[in-house]
Amino acid sequence: MRPGPKASANLAGNARINSFGASFGATINRIFAGTDGGIYSSSGEGRTWEKTSVAARTISFATFGNSIHAGTQSTGLLASKDQGMNWTSITSLASKNIRSLLAAQGRVYAGTDADGVMVSQDQGTTWTAQNAGLPPLSQIFAMAFIDNTIFAGLYNKAFTRGAKTNAAGPKQGTSSRWRLLLPAIRSLWVITPVASTGAETQNPPSGSKQPAISSLRHRCGRLRRAIS
Fold this sequence. Notes:
It is a single chain. With 228 residues, the chain is mainly β. The chain has a single domain (17-227), classed as Neuraminidase (6 Propeller). The chain is 5% helix and 36% strand. The strands form five sheets. A four-stranded antiparallel beta sheet has the order 1-2-3-4, with no helix packed on it. Strands 5-6-7-8 form a four-stranded antiparallel beta sheet, with no helix packed on it. A four-stranded antiparallel beta sheet has the order 9-10-11-12, with no helix packed on it.
């Protein structure tokens, strides 16, 4: 099999890619690449790229409602409501190093470098810590949402899980606490949050092309079945 064209050929500067994000519009979809030199965007399925105004090292993305959020190193959380044309700093989140982002059940979750997991139910206006059960000063390197459960990967500390909930709230006798999922690994934790009535993760408009996403959802699904 012959290799296809190099998709990063038009990425200028330091093009080491740390993360990808996507924004779905009524007439155009965009892919975002978070690099050590900032954020690049593409409306041509990755064939051509444009540098955005963000120059900070970008580590993570999450799409929520009509906004895309970007987690950076040293600059904190950024957000754009116009598909990356303009970015603003979310100053209500004090953490400056945002390792991971997740949009689920009407909330935005930010995995930080030392403040654990911060949660917003109003698209970033206010934030609260959701760290019950986590080790102190947890670094949250990755998060995923599957079957009403949030999975979090921690640096050298663990992978966890919590009790199932429904739209009415947690089941009787349970609480929203992180739990260590695999003691032998100690880097995987999970929690099951109460459902929110806020805006949901953005879905592509009918008839639009949705960029491919990773198989993390399927891998975590197999992992849950294997340990249940």
